[in-house]
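Workshop exercise sheet. Pairs work together: one partner reads the sequence aloud, the other fills in the structure field after running the prediction. Swap roles for the next sheet.
Pair: D.N. / O.F.
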Amino acid sequence: MAGSPPLAVDALDVAFRPIRSGNAFEECVERLLSAMKLGLVQPGQRLPAERELAGRLGVSRVTLRDALHSLGQAGWLEVRRGRHGGTFVLERATTEAERRSFRRAADAASDQLEDALVLRRVLELGAVEAAATAPVRADAADRLLSLLAECQSAGADRYRAVDSRLHLAITELAGSPSLSAAAADVRMRMNNLLDAIPLLERNIAHSNEQHERIVRAVLAGRPAEARTAMDEHLAGTAALLRAFLT
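Structure field:
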């Protein structure tokens, strides 16, 4: 709206500092959500123009548009056309059921999120490195490639289940039943948290690209590459969880 209050320059500097990781989309969503949740960008305010905002964040305008579109679908932003148009922060009117859901998500985040993220990172980085070091039987390699293809073709309704199976299959290649059991336990905790946030199409596409790099590195016996690719992948998921749940 024409009369919406302007953003302060110092708030812009804090909220929209440059992104320095390989998870540009996920961290873009995180920066935008953090700015709104902290009140640095308030309901009724218009975000900076795409060119300026993309420059501040250090991302392409395509990546920024994907992030803005995803947050629009999730009910945080609205694009308005015309002379006084732009991308505006919405006042989030929620039902009582939604408020209860948000409170449960917030409680889960404060009590479980960081613990689950640390545990997952330790387990999965060690597991993928061990998997890439161990010899992989032909049938196990075929199963991994099959799960990768299934993940890439899965719709939103099946994606998280197939994603879980792929991650657990990688862990199984490490050859430790105890590790597999621990990974399955933390994955259940992660899925409970993931179910509390929107499933974003751009994140699915990015995750599948990362899955491809992880699986290829494991099957090629390149543990350092597999670990690096998995670390980037987990960081992307962590960025979205922190953005929506904290």
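Discussion prompt: The first helix runs from residue 9 to 15. What would you look at next?
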